[in-house]
Amino acid sequence: MKNKETIGILQFGCAKNLIDMELMLGLLTKNGYSYSLNPDDENIKTVIINTCSFIYDAEKESISAIMDMIQKGKRIILTGCLVQKHKQELQKLLPEITNFIGTCDYDKIIEAIEDKNYSKISEIPSYNYREDIKREQITVGSSSYIKIAEGCYYNCGYCVIPNLRGKYKSRKIEDIVVEAKELANKGVSEIILIAQDTTSYGLDIYKKPMLSELLEELNKIENLNWIRLMYAYPTNFDEKLMKTINNLDKVVKYIDIPLQHSNIEVLKRMKRPAIDYRKFIQKIRKNIKNVSIRTTFIVGYPQETDEEFQDLYDFVKDMEFDKVGVFTYSREKNTYAYNLKPQIKQSVKNKRKKLLMELQKDISLKINKSYTGKYVQCIIEEIHSDNTIIARSYKDAPEVDGLVYIKSDEYLTPGDIVNVKITDATCYDMYGVV
Questions:
Q1: Which letter does DSSP use for residue 210 in this model?
Q2: CB-based contact 44:74 (threshold 8 Å)
Q3: Does the pTM of the predicted model rise above 0.90?
Q4: Is 122 a domain residue?
Q5: Which of 252, 279, 350, 433 sits most deeply, having the most CB atoms within 10 A of its CB?
Q6: How do residues 62-92 score in pLDDT, each as one tens digit?
Q7: 3-state secondary structure of 198
C-alpha cells in the first residue's frame, strides 16, 4: 500500500477551534495520513490552516500565516472561522488556495485533501460534533479541553459567532462522560469544559439546563482530579448551579463568566442581560466558598460615554475580581453594533483599556499577596531539568491566567495535585513550596 503524504498544520484561535482541528487530525489518522506541526518543512506539500476570525487582530494573524505558506509554495487547505465569515469573497481574493472548508464542515477534510476541486462552506452553519471521531490531541499536558456544545442562542451586538457557528447544539451527557474517561485513562488530570456558552448546556436536547447534572456525572470519574468550567453565560447561572459547583469536590471553585460591561444602558445596547451584576457576583460568592472569579470587559463600545465607562471602572474597583481581561471594541460587519453611532475613537478605547488594566493590576497584586503564608491547591504543569517546577493554582486556567513557581523535595510529576504554601506573589504569578 502506498504511503499517504504527511500533512502540515497551523492552528489559530480559541480552544473550541483547537478541538475542531484535533477532530480533523483524528480523521486524517483514521484514513492513513500522518501530520506535522512543522509546516515549514520542505517535505511538507499540503498544509491545513485552521483560522480565527473573532476580531480584526485575529484575522490579521491568520492572513499573515496564509501569505507565508503561499510564498513557500504550499498547497493550502483553509478551514475555520475566516472561511465561514468571508465565504466566496475569500475564494476570489486568494485564488492560490486550493480548498476551503467551513466551520461546520470540518468532517469533509479528507475530501478536501484528496480532491483539488473540493470545497465545502455551508451557507447556514449547523455544527455537528462527530462522536465517532477520536481526537488526535496536539496539546500535551496535565489538562485537556472538552467541548460540551457549539453555537450560540444569543445575538450579542458585537459578536459574529452565531453567523460562524450556527445555533446552539449540545452533546449528550453520556458522550461527554465517555470522552472524559478516555482522557483520564490517558493520564489527563484536569478537564476543562468549554462552549460558546456553557450554562445553556442541555437546553436544546433536554429542554432544560443540564450543566449541574453533567458536572455530577463527571465528578464520579475516579482517576480524574479537577473539572474546570469556562465561558459561563450569566442567564442560566442559577442558584442550583452555584450550589452544585460548591458541593462537588472535583469541580474547582473557579468561574469564568464574561460580563462585558456593568452599565445597564451599555448592556442593553450590547444586547446582553441587563441585570444588576453587583448583586449577581455577590450571590456567586455567597453560594460558592472561596470562589475565584475571572471575567472580561469590552471598552469603547459604540456610544459608550465617559460616565458609562466610569460606572465600569467603579464596578471593577468595588468587585475586586481575581482575574480580568479587557478588550477594546472591534467593529465587525454583520453585527448590530457595526452601524451604531457614534463609534468611539481608537485613542479613547486604548486609554480606557489602559486605565482598567492598571486598576486591575493593583487589585490582582493585592489578592495574590493575600495568599502569602497560606496553602493553595495546585496542579503540576512542568518540571525542568534544573528542578524548576511550574504549577497552576485552582484559581488559574491554562493559557489565560497566571502560574505558580514552586520548590519541592518531593518527587512530582505533571498532573499531580499538591498543596503549596505561598511565599511570595506578583500581580500575575505566585511562588511557593510544597
A1: -
A2: yes
A3: yes
A4: no
A5: 252
A6: 889 899 999 999 999 999 898 998 887 888 8
A7: helix
Among residues 312, 259, 327, 255, the alpha carbon closest in space to that of 288 is found at 255
The answer to whether residues 161 and 295 belong to one domain is yes
SS3 83: helix
Mean pLDDT of the chain: 93
Residues 236 and 311 in one domain: yes
How many residues belong to the chain?
Answer: 434
295-329 per-position pLDDT tens digit: 999 999 999 999 999 999 999 999 999 999 999 99
Specify whether 273 is located in the same domain as 396.
Answer: no
| Grid cell of 87 as nine digits | 465565504
Q: Do 205 and 331 share a domain, yes or no?
A: yes
* Bond from prior residue into 273 cis (ω within 30 degrees of 0): no
Q: What grid cell was written down for 215?
A: 458536572
The answer to whether the CB of 260 falls within 8 A of the CB of 272 is yes
Query: Residue 1 has what pLDDT?
Result: 45
CA distances to 90, 196, 265, 279, 426 from 107, in Å: 21, 20, 42, 44, 45
What's the total number of domains in the chain? Answer: 3
Is residue 256 within 8 Å of 230, Cβ to Cβ?
A: yes
CB-facing half-sphere around the CA of 342: CA atoms within 13 A:
7
- Residue that has been written with the C-alpha cell 442550583 in this structure: 240
Q: Are residues 185 and 208 in the same domain?
A: yes
Where does 255-397 have alpha helices with state H? 264-269, 277-287, 306-319, 346-369
Q: What sections of 105-238 are H helices per DSSP?
A: 109-114, 161-165, 173-185, 203-206, 211-218
What would the grid cell of residue 379 be?
Answer: 496542579
Degrees, nearest 5: CA angle 215-14-81: 120
Q: If DSSP codes are grouped into helix, strand and coil, which group holds residue 26?
A: helix
Give the per-residue pLDDT at 299: 98
Tell me, what CATH number does 96's domain have? 3.40.50.12160
